[in-house]
Amino acid sequence: MKPTVFFSILICAGVALAQQPDQPPNVRHVIGLDKIKRNANGHLTIENGVMQFTAKKTEAKVPASSIEDVFVGTETTQSGGTAGRVVRTVAPFGSGKALTLLMRNKVDILTVVYRGAGGDVHGVIFALPKGQAEPTRTQLVAAGAHTSAPQTELKDRTKP
Questions:
Q1: If phi over 0 gives left and psi between -120 and 50 gives alpha, with beta otherwise, what is residue 94?
Q2: 3-state SS of the chain: helix, strand, coil percent to 5?
Q3: pLDDT tens-digit profile of 24-61?
Q4: CA-CA distance, 160 to 153, in Å (whole number)?
Q5: Which residue, among 156, 136, 6, 146, has the nearest Cα to 67 in the 3D structure?
Q6: Lowest CB count within 10 Å: 21, 37, 122, 144, which one?
Q7: What is the 3-state secondary structure (H, E, C) of the chain?
Q8: Which tens digits make up the pLDDT trace of 76-109?
Q9: Per CATH, the architecture of 24-78+106-158 is what?
C-alpha cells in the first residue's frame, strides 16, 4: 500500500509542477525607461506585441512596432553588492584584489532602440542572465520589432 501512495504523490507533484507557468528571468534595468529607476531588478516580458518591464509596483511598456533596433552583447560584472565591496575593502594584505577575480560573473546585455509617442528616439539597456538576451531578441523580432542587421553579422563585427 505504501508504494501506491508514494507513486500517487509523485504523479500529483509532477502535474503541479507542469501547470506552473514559466517565470520570466530576473532582469536588471540599467538605464533608459522613464518610470523605472536605474539598476532596478524586475521581469521583462514580451506579449501581444508589447515589451513590458515590471519592477515592484512600476511598469513600463514599449510597443514592439516602435522598436527600431535590438542589440545583444555580453559583459563581465562584479557580484557581491555592498557586502562584497566591504569584504574586499577590509580583506588583509591586499587579498581583496584576489577576491575581485573570484567575484565576477558574465551577463548578457540587451539594448533596445525605439521611438516614443512623439517620434523622439529612446534607448534602454537591460542586463539579463547569461544566454537570455538572444532568445529575448528573437521574441522581440517575432512580436514586430525591427532590426538593422541580422545578429550573426553583428557578432562577427564585434569579435576582436
A1: left
A2: 40, 35, 25
A3: 678 999 999 988 999 999 999 999 999 999 998 999 99
A4: 14
A5: 146
A6: 21
A7: CHHHHHHHHHHHHHHHHHHCCCCCCEEEEEECCCCCCCCEEEEEEEECCEEEEEECCEEEEEEHHHEEEEEEEEEEEECCHHHHHHHHHHCHHHHHHHHHHHCEEEEEEEEEEEECCCCCEEEEEEEEECCCHHHHHHHHHHHCCCCCCCHHHHHHHHCC
A8: 766 554 544 444 444 455 555 554 555 567 889 9
A9: Roll (2.30)
Cell of 3: 508504494
Contact 44, 53 (CB under 8 A): yes
Q: Report the amino acid identity of residue 93.
A: F
In this structure, the chain runs to a length of 160
User: How open is the CA angle 77-78-80, to the nearest 5 degrees?
Assistant: 140
Single out the residue of 119, 144, 126 nearest to residue 77, CA to CA.
Answer: 126
- List Cβ neighbours of 27 (8 Å cut-off, separation of 6 or more): 41, 42, 43, 44, 53, 126, 127, 128, 132
Residue 31 DSSP symbol: E
Task: Please give the grid coordinates belonging to residue 97.
Answer: 584584489
Q: Report the amino acid identity of residue 125.
A: I
Cell numbers 528616439 label which residue? 121
